[in-house]
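Form 12-C: Joint structure prediction
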Amino acid sequence: MEILIAVLIGVLFSVATYLLLTKSLLRVVLGTVLLSHGAHLLILTMGGLGLGSAPLLGEEASKYSDPLPQALILTAIVISFGMTALLLVLTYRTYKAHQTDDLDQLRGRLDE
Amino acid sequence: MSNLLVIPFLLPMLVGAVLIFFAKQHRLQRIIAGTAGIALFVYAAFLVYIVYQTKEKMIILEVGNWDAPFGIVLVGDMLSVLMVLMSSLVGLVCLFYAFKTIHSEREKYYFYSFFFFLLTGVNGAFLTGDLFNLFVFFEVTLISSYVLIANGGKKIQLRESFKYVVMNMVASAFFLVGAAYLYATTGTLNMADLGNRVATMDQQGVLNVIAIIFLFVFGAKGALFPLYFWLPKSYYGPPAVITALFGALLTKVGLYSLIRTFTLIFNQQPQFTHSIILLLAGLTMIFGVFGALSKFDIKQIIIYQIISQVGFMIMGLGVFSTSALAGSVYYITHDMIVKVALFFIVGIIIRVTGTGDIRKMSGLLKTHPMLGWLFFIAAMSLVGIPPLSGFFGKFALVVGGLDQGQYLIVAVALIVSLLNLFSMLRIFMNVFWGEKNSTTVALTNKQTFPLLRPVIPLIVLTIALGLGAEPAFQYVIGAAEQLMNPEHYINVILP
Amino acid sequence: MSFLHIAIIAPFLFALIIPFFYKKISSVHTGWFVLVLPTVLFVYLLTFIPTIADGEVVTHLLSWVPSLGINFNIHLDGLALLFALLITGIGVLVVLYSVFYLDKDKESLHNFYFYLMMFMGAMLGVVLSGNLMVLYVFWELTSLSSALLIGYWYERKKSRYGALKSMLITVSGGFAMLAGFSLLYVMTGTFTITEIIAQVDVVTSSSLFIPTMLLVLFGAFTKSAQFPFHIWLPDAMEAPTPVSAYLHSATMVKAGIYLVARLSPVFSGSSEWFWLVSGFGLFTLLWGSFNAVRQTDLKSILAYSTISQLGMIMSMLGVGSAAAFYGYKAGFTAATVAAVFHLINHSTFKGSLFMVAGIVDHETGTRDIRKLGGLMTFMPITFTISIIGAFSMAGVYPFNGFLSKEMFLESMLHATDITSFNMQSLGVLFPVIAWVASVFTFVYSMILVFKTFRGNYQPEELEKKPHEAPVGMLIPPIILASLVVLFGFFPNILSHTIIEPAVKAIYPVSLTGVEHFDIHIKAWHGFNFPPLYMTISIIAVGVLMYLTLTKWQKIYAFLRLHKKDPINYFYDGIVNRIAPIAKKITKVPETGLLRDYLAYMYVFFIVLVGYTLFHFGGFAIDTNNVAEIPIYAWVLVAIIALSAILVPFITNRVIAIIATSFVGFLVALLFVMFRAPDLALTQLLVETVTTALFLLCFYHLPELRKEKTKPVFKWTNLFISIGVGALVTTMALSSLALGNKKPFESIADYFLKNSHDLGGGDNVVNVILVDFRGMDTMFEILVLGIAGLGIVSLIKLKMNGKEDL
Amino acid sequence: MKNNISVHTITRIAVFIILSFAVFLLFAGHNNPGGGFIGALMTASAIVLLYISFDLQTIKKVLSFYFPYLIGTGLLIAMGTGISSMFFGYPFLTQFFDHAHIPILGNVELTTALVFDLGVYIVVVGVTLLIITTIAEDDS
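Section 2 - Result
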């Protein structure tokens, strides 16, 4: 299972990277979203995916899944939510101010 | 156990939160912010004193009363409290400069809250002893910086801050990647525990790769070659005080983390990892100074000087010896002072002349002698002319580098220093020397005095740190010894 | 702290109060106040002569930065005293002279005297320091203050050019010296000069001996204007003339000489030292004198003359270093004695000549010898002074220059006595070069006097009607000229008081065992004395050449030396081209394209991580401990992967957003599968809100287009993307494999064990969030809060041209 | 759709249910899935639902909070729990809990962590609503 998810993470990182390297503002934003999905999944996988039960002690299971990565991911999700929201607004403000979404045209003059 | 360690980030956070309620009341906002800035600085100085007094030269706090390595632990060793002191100082002077320069419109939209939240993140990053918590503090710092850099909505600001944000988000994602790998291999997140466990693991291949990932992450935050290219333009847009704050603090957080992790955790194969750092240090110096020489805009030049100086600051880590690391720590301290002073002065120059182009300025020394000489001292300190503070940092690095047989980097450092001198003299000669030209002077000499008030203590400090280098060096050598002997750090945290 | 420390610091403190004098007491020329300090210091230093002449060394210790080995130790021996006396003595005369030279109403005197005092303190610091690093500190301060003095009239372009040039060249030497001193420190563990000398063996046996020597010499040569670093000195003549008289002839340029002399005990046993010092010295001597002849500006002539004379002193120190090889016999030490003696003489006659040039400039408005002429009748005193100075410089009896010139020629003739370093054959060059250079020296000395004071008076070329200078301006050169004559007739008043202690400092007793050098300078050695014939022939040929000047001066044009010193092409080439080159280099990576910045980052990542991974063989897969894969997992993963891969191909913004959200929702499903209910819930809700946000911004967002990218870019992008993904996966597997073998428990077990009892909750994830790692959560919500407020300010804050700084 | 009464009624009911569930999630978080963040997002989605069926002005009238103040308050509450432990000589952010018997509700666990979570809840609600309303307002 870990291997399969690791491959999936690789795919997510690849796609995210590809999107980040494009010239369209929106695609870049989508790239960052996918990138964070990849990173979160990676944290979970790195805690091991051995299927214990959920880390709810009320359930009295013999084996629980690792709670720490879950807590870390929760924190990371919240943070990336904030970041994404901010980036989104920044994106459309940029787009409106420059009237273009082509990063090629958002280089700025070379000699300024 | 000492709750002393939470104040440096809790106080600014508290102030930032409180100021949300008073966003529209300028006077009150300033009074609260100013008082808090002073209090924070005084407290940080007190903290340094306390830490220096203890036997271990280090205090820790297990937050939430959970034993390390399970809970989050805050660590105030000599390096981190020094960094806190410096960031509080930078915060303080920037605050008073902001009072004079920031438009009330900007103040209305939570400027001071963001300002203090940035300090929260920076101080927290310096004090935390937990890798993931470091990530969280990084994000606090970064998101405050995103807002501060983009606010105002000038075209160039929006455009460049978009790039800035994306670059940093990518680096942050890889921070998580690195932390995840480390957790998988070692099963812990506490940095002392990581240092301990990494040292006892026999397979170094994977750990070296993880080290490189962190080098990549912190290098991107600390503006190392080839990860800094976003920096020059994105720092150009915002007002001078924000550029000063960023130039002095943001890269330092990256460098601090680099120093921390590569002395505490990734210290197993320095001949490999630290050689790469050294290589990057050299390239950063060179490309930074070339950038500075290629520009004629005064703000751009100083921004490139940030990059060039990053190379020096990281050189001691690459050399990896006590004296060289002491040099690096001293250099970081010095750079925070001088960089802020330079950006303040540059801000005033641009205000006075109404242009940033040094080719269009001339003869300002006649009309604004004070401004000119303050700039001159700061510039010479940056270049490393004795007996100013910049010299001693450079000197310790040179001796440390030669002592370890790293001749090439020392040669590069000295040649780059010469080029730095050239770039700073070029500014001085264009802006302050020469005939008084016809450009209108927006501010008279007298009118610049209130703006110069925050600059003067910084200049005094760079002179004092030079003439009185001994106590400072006793301190940074102590800090470097702590860094070079991580066992002590580990033993205090994990008894 | 001793009085000598105070003597060094006093000028700096004095410099700080000068602006107050200038502002408060404007009726009196500031120079009068300033004059006090060098006078006091000079008198104070004079009192040391008996002590030092007795062979004692005055030392005072003062710790400064002991952690770095930097201590402000005073080491006052013969050499230091000689220089200190020159610095303060000439300082007195120069300040006096400047009072009359600089107009108190037109000049910003506070700046001038500030720089000048700073320079004096720095110079005293250089020569009195017993610690190399303190010496270096003051050394750089002399460079700095000198540059400020050169740029004193900063409105002039030439002043700025000269200041920059002198700063860049001398500081580059300074930095090299810093490295050299640091190497000495690394070898010996100390910066204290006497302690380094005590460990000469350690230094000479080090593999870094030669590099260290080169670095130190680089510093000395740049400061003392040795070829090819001499080019800054002629341009430094833009400084006010008192400055030229002080810094650029008598004191600062001799700092390099001082350093070579000071460190002779450490280095002089080697042939490299001998060759470098005497070789560069001799060539500089020749080059300087040869070029001086073609100059038309009085101060330029003097500048090149100074270069040449500095080369001469340097070459004598080089030849004198042979003494270290051959046991310090008089025959070998003679060159060093000559060097010290000439150093004194040069300060006297060159100082007076600079002052004369200043007077001429001041009284006629020009220094161009083509416009000058026939001034003898207008300014007879000045003329007399210049005759004395110039003839001494040319080496004519009975002036002091004659004596030291003859000693110089003699020591050069003895160069062939040196039996090693290939000197039997090459040694012949030494006297030959010396002779040729002396001829040119004679010629330019004559030009200096006669083109100015004799010949045709050309009133139409001059700005003012010339007349004799005010008395105050004449006194300093008269004093110097009197010294020229005095030392010419009674040279031995210096031999035991000043020269011998200085020579003993260069040849310390600890190394030589020689207690006493017999120094007796005399003018007449009888007819069996070859230098006498050399002198006579120099004068004869010199006169001939001066008379036929116009006939052979075309040679400069032929050699292309008539416009500017060829070394200047190098300097200007570098300085002018560095900005364009830097621009070209900076332009390449900084394209302004986010794509490029990210690409560098990723390539850096791939190259370094990939290299490390395969170099250290870190890759591993461990299949022992992995969970089984149920069939629905295959399906789910396949769908996630497919929908993610589709995103880049979508050209409709709504579909692209929804596809991305879809991936997010499926990830939430994965979380369910992996028994992470909190995570799944959070992911689900966050994804919902994020999607809502995207759609809210929908109208603000651009429509997607098909990417128009060059195939090359497309392929590199693809390559980079796949590389990143592959590395992340590989590393994930390797980390897991390594983690399975780790010899310790994960900290996670602690949370499961203690959550209920210590944390008071059964949802371990939540207990971690609010309790075990509550700090994370606290700052996570801060991030969120900042994001919220940030969005408000991003949208609402519009500066509308309201500029803040 | 904006003035459709049946939609409004259904929305009201739905919002009520969602909000109750959100509060439940907030309080249950310590022992079961949930917690401040999840509860807050739930609350926010309920309000978004309101926004979809009513218009912005109505929402603003109903929720007369000034959202930035909400954020500030939440941050202060969260900090307050952390700081209060310092006054009792414990390290920053030490949480305490006890079981108390309260009539009607029975045996209830009281924890300071819940207060902390409440702070989280308020901040997240404030932020989410602030973002949504600000962006929405920018539309016009």
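Section 3 - Comments
The two ends of chain D are 19 Å apart (CA to CA). Residues 71 and 123 of chain D are 4 Å apart (CA to CA).
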